[in-house]
Amino acid sequence: MPNHVARASLRVAECLSTFIEQRVLPGTGLDPEDFWPGFAELLKQFAPENHELRAIRDRLQAQIDQWHEARRGQPIDATEYEQFLRAIGYLVAEPPAFRIDTQGVDAEIATLAGPQLVVPALNERFALNAANARWGSLYDALYGTDALPGKARGPGYDAERGQQVIAYAKRFLNETVPLQAGRHEDVAQWTVQNGALVPALSDPAAFVGFTGPAHAPTGLLFKHHGLHIQLVLDRKHPIGRADPAGLADVILEAALTTIVDLEDSIAAVDADDKVAAYSNWLGLMQGTLTATFEKSGKTLTRSLEPDREWLAPQGERFTLPGRSVLFVRNVGHLMSTSAVLLPDGSQAPEGIVDGVIGSLIALHDVNNRHANSRTRSIYIVKPKMHGPAEVAFSNRLFDAIEDLLKLPRYTLKIGVMDEERRTSANLAACIYEVRHRIVFVNTGFLDRTGDEIHTSMRAGAMIRKNEMKQSEWIRAYEQRNVQIALAAGMSGRAQIGKGMWAAPDKMGDMLTQKIAHPSAGATTAWVPSPTAATLHALHYHAVNVFARHGQLALDAPAPLGTLLKIPLAEKTDWSAAQIREELDNNAQGILGYVVRWIDQGIGCSKVPDIHDVGLMEDRATLRISSQHIANWLMHGICTTQDVEAALERMAARVDAQNAGDPNYRPMSPDTANSLAFQAASALIFEGSSQPNGYTEPLLHAFREKAKRRDSL
To answer: Residues bearing Cysteine sulfenic acid (-SOH) (predicted)?
Structure first.
């Protein structure tokens, strides 16, 4: 437990109070004498309601459990089930027809469509890489990944691979910004003459800027579907030297937005962890964050990219943003934090603390820099809310934070994660509650599936995990998210998002498959790396998302009854081999993630799956896997002994997969003394009793033990 100091009626961890008073408040126009009493009063008002909202979750879950227990072994009558959910308040009435009216939203969020990154706030280097991923080299993204067949050979430049990349890039240019006559392969010289590009594009308006002298530009800037494409022209460059037009690279505008994550992708369990995460957010808002690291035997320092300067076709100067527009993702309503203690000695709700401190930090951008939001907005992603009452709570909390920080109403904009069953079933009502400040709605397949399993834990045995992606409810969930958002007028005012591509080494597959997201009407979708953002940007050139909105608006949302159809297995006569395969797959994923979380404090990383394919894992993947085994245990598909054996087998497998990590702490053969192994076991065997199936309470408890162990 950190040392605490008195601040107004609160007890605040000394490291946090020092951070706020010495590093955050200066430059905001606020002083400690105003801030701390205001913060204490805000907590006095909202902490009890936060606690009551969690209690409502528990009461609803208990009623649903009892309903299923009373009908054990009977088929579920869909009409009776829906009536029951309405009677207990799980389902609410649809709101009247409405349109959101959020004002002051940056174009990257409201009127442009493009990739979105999610990055852990605790990793400075990753945070900078993500913020700087607004622009990415298409040549590099193609050359170094499996986006194209084969791979580069040798330690130096592979000319054959290079030609493959250049051919792909020029095909893209021919399709996206075609010439009036001929092909991009045929261009021998670019010039700008009297404000016109020579040779001309078939759509002359697509040429929007250049650098260098007009008779021999060093860069050309095109615009297509709202996104910029830059041609780098350099006849002295090794690549440009061999190109008829001197084309050395094609740069794509890629990650328009980035979510700096204080939630699922970090392991922050105490005040020290929270201050480290807040400090990186402060550096991003002040523009001062740097990261120094070793690469290829050299010491490198990374900082935020400056804006990009251009000449318009007629010669006027203008700039384009050099960085993503940043959101900050707070934690949800579940957890509390020892960083701030209430007058009765209890811990303050962590989501409220995140909201206040994250917004206070963002004042450095709003009041001073305007480098992140040119509209002086603060963008906050709020995850894991259950239904409209919790969304309304967040709206009123944001009102209070604005008042505390002396901000105009609706400066704080909210992104609503549609990742809990009660939210997706009441999505229109949720959006209605924040119709004046909402800037995105986004699906979260893994958390949503984890909540699907936990909510209906006692209804029966669930289908196998991989079959969930083909289930009726998930198709209804993804379709309803877009349709309800469109009906609420979010097109052109807010993002409509889709989830993560989890395999960062499978860029070829991503290029083939992830175009489904913009085709479905998503104006953004999550990608795991800057390289993936560059490649995913190609999809937004291939699909005019806003044109798709006009087509999709004619469709009706999938029926609520389909969304509520529980993915129960019709037959549970799986073979012993199939059951073992399912348990091993889940157990390996759980252990591979948890061992890094508990022993090293890594909340998100590329974790090898059971087939040694690296997947980006965070707590959402852990939630679904642990809940799935807990469900099968409850319904007798497997035994405790089966699960324990799978955990033992997979502990050895995970140890072998991490053998090259000098910081790794093996779990086997002494699993009884491995905190990570104990945590993974607890997540399964206590899974049915965890609040809404969340993993945070157990992860935090075991991580705190590990930190105490390592401090001895």
So the answer is: 604
pLDDT of 326-380, one tens digit each?
Answer: 999 999 999 999 999 999 999 999 999 999 999 999 999 999 888 999 999 999 9
The candidate with the shortest Cα–Cα distance to 620, out of 294, 232, 261, is: 261
Domains in the chain, number? 2
Q: What's the CA gap between 140 and 531, in Å, rounded? A: 8
Q: Where among 191, 220, 253 does a domain terminate?
A: 253
The boundaries of the domain holding residue 594 are 576-711
State the burial class of residue 72 (Cβ atoms within 10 Å of its Cβ: 0-12, 13-18, 19+): exposed
Options 329, 458, 548, 653, the catalytic residue:
329
Average pLDDT of the segment spanning 597-610: 94
317 is in an annotated binding site: no
Last residue of a domain, one of 222, 253, 284: 253
For residue 156, what is the domain's CATH number?
A: 2.170.170.11
Q: What is the DSSP letter of 278?
A: H
Contact in structure between 426 and 560 (CB atoms under 8 Å): no
265 assigned binding-site residue? yes
C-alpha–C-alpha distance, residues 592 and 604, integer Å: 11
685 is in an annotated binding site: no
Residue 409 bears catalytic tag: no
Q: Tokens 């008002």 appear where? A: 45
The verdict on residue 368 lying in a domain is no
Catalytic status, residue 618: yes
